[in-house]
Amino acid sequence: EVQLVESGGGVVRPGGSLRLSCAASGFNFDDYGMSWVRQVPGKGLEWVSGVNWNGGSTGYADSVKGRFIISRDNAKNSLYLQMNSLRAEDTALYHCARYSSSGLEYNWFDPWGQGTLVTVSS
Amino acid sequence: QSALTQPASVSGSPGQSITISCTGTSSDVGGYKYVTWYQQYPGKAPKLMIYEVSNRPSGVPDRFSGSKSGNTASLTISGLQAEDEADYYCSSFTSSSIPPVFGTGTKVTVL
């Protein structure tokens, strides 16, 4: 079964840092680009970041550029998101999702993980 | 990049057909074939329902269909069932190439 499981969410103060992880299983992880998409509870979806199959190409939403770093470890079938200088507006459920190809150009995401909740609050 | 516009809610009785619209611009929906629809139950992961405007992944019932005209894409659910009650999001490739744009989301209620 193709599966993505996120972890690492929690409560953090403004200005703090957090590292999210996504464990992939059931498919050849290094054949696909991967992404993070966030969702404010009860609200819509916002693409946050993406990385190509080998980590050599990355992309970020303007809202997180310079603060978040996406990376992957193909040997561990894992995706990561290092979140620094966190703000209240970063509070959301963070999903990892698989691109339909090895690159970053969006066609569709499938599958998605259930997400890990990040709350930024003092 | 502004979010694609969807109606906040659509409802229908079991067995009826409903259509959800997704309006963008020529820089996203109107310009490319990569329009996608996702279904999301509360507390669950989004699920791919339609890709490339009108294609269904294996396992998605054929009562779900997609189409596009100009800058507006549509998802139609024919023969509405209770299990179709969920949130639905459209998305599209954009002229910016890397970041996709998502719709505002539509809550489907089965009366």
How would you sum up this structure, described in words?
Chain A has 122 residues and is mainly beta. Chain A is 0% helix and 50% strand. In chain A, strands 2, 4, 5, 6, 9, 10 and 11 form a 7-stranded mixed beta sheet that branches. By secondary structure, chain B is mainly beta. In chain B, the strands form 2 sheets. In chain B, strands 1, 3, 4, 7, 8 and 9 form a 6-stranded mixed beta sheet that branches. Chain B is globular, with a radius of gyration of 13 Å. Chains A and B meet through strand 5 and strand 10 of A and strand 8 of B.
Offer a concise description of the structure.
With 122 residues, chain A is mainly beta. Chain A contains no helices and eleven strands.
Number of helices of chain B: 0
Number of beta-strand segments of chain A: 11
Assembly annotation: heterodimer
Radius of gyration of chain B: 13 Å
The secondary-structure class of chain B comes to mainly beta
Report the strand count of chain B: 9
Summarize model confidence as the mean pLDDT of chain B: 95
Overall 3D shape of chain B: globular
Largest sheet of chain B: 6 strands, mixed
Structural class of chain A: mainly beta
SSE string of chain A, helices as H and strands as E: EEEEEEEEEEE
Contiguous runs where pLDDT drops below 50 for at least 5 residues of chain B: none
Shape of chain A: globular
Largest sheet of chain A: 7 strands, mixed
Query: What is the first-to-last residue Cα distance of chain B?
Result: 35 Å
Low-confidence stretches of chain A: none
Q: Percent of residues of chain A in beta strands?
A: over 45%
Helix content of chain B: under 10%
Written as H for each helix and E for each strand, in order along the chain, the element string of chain B is EEEEEEEEE
